[in-house]
Each structure stands twice: as structure tokens, then as C-alpha cells.
Amino acid sequence: MSKLSEDDIEKRLLQFPEWEYYEDAIHAEFEFDNFKDCFSAMSRIAFDCEALNHHPEWTNVYNVLTITLTTHSENGVTDKDFKLAEAIEAIVEPEDD
Ligand SMILES: C[C@H](O)[C@H](O)[C@H]1CNC2=NC(N)=NC(=O)C2=N1
């Protein structure tokens, strides 16, 4: 899984409006109604991390979850980070249908 170029990252980020690229990582912040909803989302995300064998750097303060995704072994952003970002989006911003 090799490190993506800055151009590739910016192109792929067009599909991820909540995410921003800087310092060799993609970053997002999500706000929930309360701690319970936030931590519940974190628990669900954790299962996907294990399934994908890819893990975030994240912090939680009450109802806010801050996430940084990077591939440590590549010192940059790879397809694995986008796969995990997609899984996170499906949990925190489910599409209405
Ligand atoms: C052995 C295992 O595949 C590695 O330690 C994985 C696990 N999760 C990981 N997560 C992230 N974000 N970067 C990695 O390089 C990484 N490596």
C-alpha cells in the first residue's frame, strides 16, 4: 500500500468534504448531540478498524470526535486511509433514503 501523491489525495478528498489534508494525514472533526452518541460511534468505528486492520489517531472531548488518518508504515496517506474514512462516514453521516 504505497503513499498517495498530494494530487491524488486532493482529488479523492472531493468525495470527502468533511476531511482536510495536511501534515501527511487526513483530518476530520465530528460533533454529536452528547457523549453517549459520540462514544457509541467510536465503538462502531473500532470494529471497522479491526476488520480493516487500520487504526486512527483520535481524541474525544465530550461530544466531539477528532480523527487523523495516516498510514504509519508509509509515512503518509494511502488507500487504507480512504477505506477507513469511508467506513467512518457511513457510521457518522448515514445517508437518508
Ligand atoms: C501489523 C499491522 O498490520 C500494522 O501494525 C498496522 C496496523 N494498523 C495501522 N494503522 C495505521 N494507521 N497505520 C499503520 O501503519 C498500521 N499498521
UniProtKB/TrEMBL annotation:
GO terms for molecular function: 4-alpha-hydroxytetrahydrobiopterin dehydratase activity. It holds the Pfam family Pterin_4a. It catalyses: (4aS,6R)-4a-hydroxy-L-erythro-5,6,7,8-tetrahydrobiopterin = (6R)-L-erythro-6,7-dihydrobiopterin + H2O. It comes from the Bacteria. Keywords: Lyase. Its EC number is 4.2.1.96. Belongs to the pterin-4-alpha-carbinolamine dehydratase family. This is Putative pterin-4-alpha-carbinolamine dehydratase. It comes from Formosa undariae.
